[in-house]
Amino acid sequence: MSEASTAKMGAIGGRDVLEGAFALLEALAHGNEMGLTRLASAAGLPKATAYRLLNQLVAEGAVQRRGGRYQIGPRVFRLGQTWQPAQLLRSASARPLRQLTAASERGGFSLAVSDRGHTMLIGGIGREIDEIFPLRPGVLLPPGTAAEQVLAFGQPNPTPPDGFSAREWRRHVTTSRDADLAYDTDMSRFRLACVAAPVHGPGGEIVAALAATVAEVRRIPAVAEAVKRAAGSASTNLTKLLRSHRALTL
Hints:
- 48% of the residues lie in helices and 18% in strands.
- By secondary structure, it is an alpha+beta fold.
């Protein structure tokens, strides 16, 4: 085998193969179907390498391929549903989210957590919002959302997301923390606005953000206090569930 071939094999072997596969899955985690060229670019991989890894992921059920386009497969979804923190948070938030949905004619409601610098949805009820942006588990939110502001409340020096200076982001987070509510009314990106409130764990730590998303910014004030109350109910439910879970495991 030539030195060039050996180097090429090393570049796609072992840990690098796993990193490449996860980069592809991360790119697909935004919830949209993608073609090979765009997907390879998003994952930072050569097109041939991406194609080879995608074939393996399709064979394992981690990725689905339809007409030359790719999306997250059922196996990844099934494995993700077993993540215990998400299960407990979804259970704690289920009733508050249903009540919000019943009281609102339009809009979507969601639950998000931090994941290695990203803001990831673990639950959502989209209604007409899904037509603009999918509120589905596993979807990564764009930078600077109300949910991301909430999840930064407990950080002494929150890292600014793309598009924000450190000073600007600190100002957003401080203002939102003082109100115990965060807002994102920038309609230029997705024609959507959102408001979010923190869900707390038993020790008072912020573990998730519960948010309402609407297609009309004028509707934000009407749902803001309802979102805060729902997040408070979810926090209370979570504490009860965790205590019950711990009692059962003793």
